[in-house]
Amino acid sequence: MEALVADLLSAAARAEPTKIALSEAATGRTVTWAALDDLADRVAQGLSAAGMVAGYRVMIAVTNRIEFVATYLGVLRARMVAVPINPRSATGEVVRMLVDSGSRMVVADETTIGMVRSAVAGVTEAFEAADMVAPQPRLVSIATTLEPGERSWDHLVLETGTPVPGTTDPESLAVLLYTSGTSGRPRAAMLSHRALAANIAQAAEVVPPMINGRDVVLGVLPLFHVYGLNAVLGQVLRQHARMVLVDGFDPEGSLDIIEDEAISVLPVAPPVFAYWMQVPGLEDRLGPVRTVLSGSAPLGPELTAAFTAKTGLAIQQGYGLTEAAPVVTSTQCSADPDPGSVGAPLPGISIRLVDETGGEPEDEDPGQIQIRGNNLFSGYWPDGADGPDAEGWWSTGDVGYLDASGDLVLVDRLKELVIVSGFNVYPSEVEDVIVELDDVAEAAVIGVDDPLTGEAVVAYVKPRHEVAEDRLTEQVRAHCAARLAGFKQPKTIHVVATLPYTVTGKVQKGRLRATERRRALGLLE
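^ that's the sequence the OP posted. Answer follows.
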């Protein structure tokens, strides 16, 4: 069995105690491997002293900073369950995740404290409205003025307690990550200690290594996302590299950090390349870089070729999913990389294609992608539903084919996910929010291509009664801004008299997508 994530930290602290593990670009703060190991230990002890026990969920609503990493590793070390969330989530979203996960504690910082306080109050109101009693999540606050009943970060890590006794079962739950799954509202993928460790080990077998011990890694990918959390931070832990934490992406600012910190590995999401290509003299700003890694959403071959031609740097693409912890394929595993593919499977991961009957597709027809490996999740919270089958295969909901060299080429998605800047948006969640408005009878949400974010959310809205189009559009926009994270909010809103339906009464979203394609070609006003 591969070393578990918290054990990787202990190994790094023993091997290179004085080497800098993390630094913050904005503040200049640094922490060595030995200091990070000690901090994670103190988090684990502080959680125990606060009455938290193995299996309790701890929500982490924190930006990319040292305390996020220490909290995450301390939670795992205490055999509790980490629930990282987008720190820019809307209050209503956090209320739902708190109730769904049953989190007993929330760690927040100065950028999230207001939202988290409102969400914790919302949980209490939700249970009171249902005439139920539930424990109110306790709040740990980093670098803020405390309110009654709250615990400070300094208090948490200075408390002395007994770490949770016993050893960690690799099959026990380590992380809940909210994703759209294959249907319905976002739900939490259950990632075990085994799944996290397996994918770190699988990625570490790639030759040449994605990240090595001499690398300085750009930590701009959000740590609440599985890509930043396990694909990047996991490799940093495994290889004893140094990670420069950055909160939020700025095209010019990120390039300054690359130069100032001598960044050698750039793990980024596809929209980054479109932004960087607009920066004059880009090719002169990436001197220290040896490897560029792209994941979380498809990257067009044209943009890939243009970036490489401009900078001389090849982009190593990959395919992954939250449920796979996350990396499934990489062009670094390809014998003959094709710009249109996402590469070959990592060692220890198997891929097969199936048609609608579950059989093998004919000839070179595309099929639904199924994967198998020790990195797969244990199903969705709370009961493990829709996880791998009895033989270990899991259907991704994505469609693709294998080219002549065995590389995977993505074709389509069976599920209706919209991927905005690498983040999943499930249309039904946005639709549910829009139809909360009294003036809205129905709503249909789709994704369209966007040059900067990969895809953008477009909403078609049918009024309940006669209402001014401009007024309804502004209502929808304001309501979504209050209820949804920014990346989930519709970029474009169309008010329509009717929506197209199938004979079974479902909205024909294919027709809406076709309308948007015609609009993009200038065939519609």
